[in-house]
Each structure stands twice: as structure tokens, then as C-alpha cells.
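Hello, quick one for you while I still have it in my head. A protein chain has come my way and I'm curious about its shape. Can you walk me through what the C-alpha cells say about the fold? No rush at all, and the record is pasted right below.
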Amino acid sequence: MIFVDTGAWFARSVPSDPNHDRVTSWFASNSEPLITSDYCVDETLTLLVARKRLRLSIEIGRLLFDESLAQMHFIASDQIRRAWILFQSRASDGWSFTDCTSKIVIDDLDIKTALALDAHFQQFGNLLVVP
């Protein structure tokens, strides 16, 4: 199972993104099951709207919510609490709260690979970051 972060969803969805070709090539060659979190979906849709891509946000949202692209993990309340604890110690390193929830999910589900463009994923430890 491979965890997919916000930046990868955005790059896959937006042809003008500098990482679009690299990410879409990775998606095309991947055969492993994918998982993302509801927090990453929220962040992706919010980013698309903020960048004036409303129609695209609706299209991508449909694909993500019907789990056509990846299984969606809904963050549980205990995971939110643990992410909050992690956030308090890692925010000074630039980690977002969503980064912290992703780290908790990756650890809880024993995920070994993440598709992420966020450099903070390199700091998670014991995780292969692709593409």
C-alpha cells in the first residue's frame, strides 16, 4: 500500500504543475494499491479552489470520494490527538498539521512507501518517498 499526499494529487490533476509529467508517469506505471487520508483530500480540494480551479476540484473530489483513485482513510479522533502532540514538536520544522496526520496514519498502517512532493516526508524516517 502506498500513501498519496496532497502535492501528488495536485500535480497529477494540474497539467501546468512542474511535477505533472513525473507524477502522472509514476501513476501510470504503479500497480500497488493506493491510500490517502481525508485530510489530504481536504487539503487538495482547498488548494485547487484557492488556485481558481473550481471545476477541477469538483472532478477530482468525485474521484477521490468514490475511491476510484485510492482508498480513503478517515482520520480517527485518537489519531487527531496524536497528530496534535506531534504537531506541537514539529511545527517549528515547518510540518503542517496535515503532515502530522499523514505521519500518524503511515505509522499506524505500517506503510513503507509514500508518493509525496513534500520534503517533510523525507523526515518521517523509514519511509521510501517516490516518485
